[in-house]
Each structure stands twice: as C-alpha cells, then as structure tokens.
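User: I'm putting together a small comparison set for a docking exercise, and I want a reference complex before I start. The sequence is below, and the ligand is FE2/S2 (inorganic) cluster. Could you produce the 3D structure with the ligand included, as structure tokens?
Assistant: Of course. I'll restate your input first, then give the structure tokens for the complex.
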Amino acid sequence: MTKQKPSPAALKPQTLVFVRRGEAVALNNVPPDRTLLDLLREDLRSCDTKEGCAAGDCGACTVVVAQACGGKLAYRAVNSCIRPAHSVHGLAVWTAGDLAATPGSLHPAQQAMVDHHGSQCGFCTPGFVMSLFGLYQDSVCQGQAVNREQAQHALSGNLCRCTGYRPIVQAACHMGDYPVQRVDEPAVLHALAGIEPRGADADYGLPERLEDLLRARSQSPQATLIAGATDAGLQLTQGRQRWRQVIDLSRVAELRVVEDYPHHIAIGAAVNLQHAFEALAQERPHVQAFANRFAGWPIRQSGTLGGNVANGSPIGDSMPLLIALGAHVVLMAWRRGRIVHRELPLETLYTGYRQNLMAPDEVLCWIKVPRPTPHEWLGAYKVSKRVEDDISAICLVVQLQRQGQRITQASIGVGGVAATPVRAVHTEAALRGRDWTPDTVQKAQAVLRQEFEPISDMRASSAYRREVLGNLLQRAWLESTGQTEIRLEDLA
Ligand SMILES: Cc1cc2nc3c(=O)[nH]c(=O)nc-3n(C[C@H](O)[C@H](O)[C@H](O)COP(=O)(O)OP(=O)(O)OC[C@H]3O[C@@H](n4cnc5c(N)ncnc54)[C@H](O)[C@@H]3O)c2cc1C
Ligand code: FES
Ligand code: FES
C-alpha cells in the first residue's frame, strides 16, 4: 500500500482518496472489504482510534466524517470498525489525533474531558472525544450551547466502563467554555472538490446517479450491495466474510432525499435513519421518542431506513412502524435498457427469515409512507434489555383511525414474534368497527397474545413476549385515553 499526495487529475478510479488534516490522502490497492478502522490503524498507523467490539456497539472506534453539502460540510460521527474504508472516498475524515490546532494543544472537546475528569483508563476516550467533536461542530461552532439532552443523544453510541457518564456528559455541556476552535472549512471543501468521483464501475462502486446504480446492479447482481453498512459491516468483522465487489448506494443523489406528495412522503433508500425518522416525526411527533431508541447516534447517522427494511430482520424496529403506517416499498431494476419498477405493501416483501422477494438485479429505492389523517392515533413501543443501543425483544406499533369512540380502522405492526416483521391481522379485525373501550381492548389483548408463536431466545422467552405484547396494547389504550402517568421515553 502506498501513501501519496496526488494531483487530482492523475487519480485512477480505484484509488481511495479522502481528506485528512486538510490534505488529500490517496491510497492504492485497498481491498473493497477493508474496514476503515483497519485502514487507519494498520495501514496509516493511526492507533489513536481504538477497537473494542468490532460490532458497532461500543463506540471506541468512532471517527468523524464530513461531506460537502451545498457549499458547507455536513459532519457525522461514525463507527469505523464496521464501515468499509472505501466508503470515505471523497469525504473528509478526522480521528482524535487530528483535532489539536497545534502540536501539544488540545481541542475543546478534549480539554473539557480532561477538566471534567471524563477519562480513566482512556480506552474509550478517543471514541467519546470524536462523538463530542461531531456535536461541537453542529452546536458550539454554530453559536449554540450544548444541553444535557443533546449530549446524551450524541454519546448514545459510546460505552465507558470506568468513569461513569456524568463527567463525560458534563464535559459535553462545557465544551463551549473554551475559545472556539473551527475547522478551516474552505480549505477542506477545496481539497474535497479536487477528488475525482468514483463512479459505479469499480471493485467498490460509488454510483452517484440512480441509473448508474441500477445498471451496476444489473451487471453485477453477485456484488455486495450496501447503504450504511451498519448491518452488512458485521458480515466482515463477525462473520469473517470476504467481499470481492461492493456497490455502495449511499451517494446516489436521487435516493438521498425525502419527497413530499399530497398523500404520502417518499423516503429515498440512501436517507440515513436520523433524517428518515425526523421526516416521519414532522407529522407524527410521537415517532421521535421511538426513533431515539433505535441503536445509538452513530448508527442512526450511517444506517438507512432502506437498509433496515431490506435487511428484514424480524427484530428490526422500523418495519413494525412502517407496516402500521401502511408503507409501500418501490423496487427498481435496469432491464432491457430502461428503469422498471414495482410497488408493494411492505409486509408482503418478506418471504422468510431475512428473505424477501427482491430479484437479484432489484434495488429497494423508495419507502412511501401515507400522511396521517385527522383521525389517526399512533402508539409505538420497543421493549429491549437496555434503553440505548439495543435490539428489540418485542416491538409493537398500533395505528388507529377513530371517529369518536368507534375504531374505523386498525393497523398493527409487530416485531420479535415471527420469522419476519408482521402485521397482526386478527387483532386488527378484533378492533375494527368496535368502540375503543376497556372491554374491546381486553378482548384484543387476548387475540394478540395468541396470534403469534414467538420463539424463546437470549432476548426473551416466548411466554414473556406474549405477555408483554398484550400489555403493550393495554398501554396504548391507557396512553390514548390520557391515563399514563409515566412515559419513560419522555424522561430526558
Ligand atoms: C450497534 C448496532 C445497533 C443496532 N441497533 C438497531 C436497532 O435498535 N434497531 C434496528 O432495527 N436495527 C439496529 N441495528 C441494525 C442496523 O443498524 C439497521 O438495520 C440499519 O437500518 C441498516 O441500514 P444500513 O443502511 O446500514 O444497511 P446495510 O448494512 O448497508 O445493508 C443491510 C442489508 O440490506 C441490503 N440493502 C441495503 N440497502 C438496500 C437497498 N436499498 N436495496 C436492497 N438491499 C439493500 C444490503 O445488501 C444488506 O444485506 C443495529 C446495528 C448495530 C451495529
Ligand atoms: S469497536 Fe466497538 S463500535 Fe467499533
Ligand atoms: S475510561 Fe476506561 S473505558 Fe472509559
């Protein structure tokens, strides 16, 4: 592997180029399945970035990446352990060792950690500092103070075994006490502008147009298709798989947007989870508390809604929500010289455990979510062992259309009870056309507990899952009638 400072014109498509410390770094012969963490630590000897779990769970490997976006930099803290190195082609990258303005000095994120005693053994510290740096760019550098809630969100993907979180959260809230240290954004943007786009025809393809993505998929259906790689990356680090060819759809411009239509919104497959949930929460504020339970901040910054749906895990969180909301998916392919597409209700996509009816040349491009009616009531519940950064044992989302007391329509999505995310059709039938009363709810609870045969596994026993499922429906009733005294999700 060679490190050189290239003249942009001489770059080959396969060369991995990113900006670090304000300058372009170009690396040749980087395999498509090399992780960013291995590249940093082993190839660039940048050992300030640590490896803890290699599974996206602990945050020790957190780095910050930035992409040019409308003449500015958009910053994201990401887990480098499960992220392919080539995914940072054309981006700027910072590790903890890149933050000091001058040798021997500390960035405010680092100084605050020192002053508030946020580090003991120090293993987690570079990861925390990078999450703080990402937060600093979006808050202090924009003239805004950091509050406790923002700090907790930004740090939700970082684990520390020594200090406890209070001093670290305190450090986050005090980063603004020091003289502001800004990134030289014009210089970084200039360096980024000199990097040649990768395109689709490479071992690690980064198409920027939908047509190029679909053509590449049609030519190489055997290639590994990824979006944020927060699921797929585990195949490398935990599954020991090798990827010979990758198509990364995260740069496809058409799929990076949320489109508004009179009766639905369409979320592109390259929209990250954070933005997708924000779009859903605009008209359904209740979604935000549910979304905050999805993984931690860095995973929501990298992972996509499309990846969650395509992955089709029975304990994935967005599918019960999307099923309850009546979402459809749009699949696209390049066939006989043109783009073809088909649209289907989300729950019909799945055929078995992590199996779906997408053809090898098809890509899930859009998720269409109907807008709420004035009669909608929505309750979304996730039960997991940990509040943050944990996978569901059970997930239940209830959407009711009501006229007065009468339930005109019930739509219920469930996770953790079958081989795929599912719709609770019998429970829906038990509610439809009835009054939303304790008696109706009790009968529907009994139906819901019997509708599925959940398995027992490390997350929960079958009996627990059945019991909790019914309890969650009762909770929906209590909430909808204003009788809930405590909502844990609302506690900052
Ligand atoms: C620490 C950690 C915590 C997590 N917590 C949660 C959680 O709380 N809830 C939850 O539901 N999930 C969780 N996940 C799983 C993961 O983050 C989500 O499933 C995420 O939405 C996947 O999106 P992605 O863009 O990263 O998909 P990728 O990893 O890039 O892809 C996942 C799969 O989908 C396929 N794929 C991706 N996009 C498309 C497309 N547009 N068309 C066709 N196929 C496609 C890929 O080929 C791959 O097989 C967690 C993961 C980690 C590592
Ligand atoms: S090493 Fe634990 S999240 Fe990457
Ligand atoms: S300081 Fe030791 S793990 Fe955080």
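Residues 68 and 189 are 6 Å apart (CA to CA). The pocket of FE2/S2 (inorganic) cluster (ligand 2) is lined by residues 51-54, 56-61, 79, 81 (CB under 6 Å).
User: Thanks, that's exactly what I needed.
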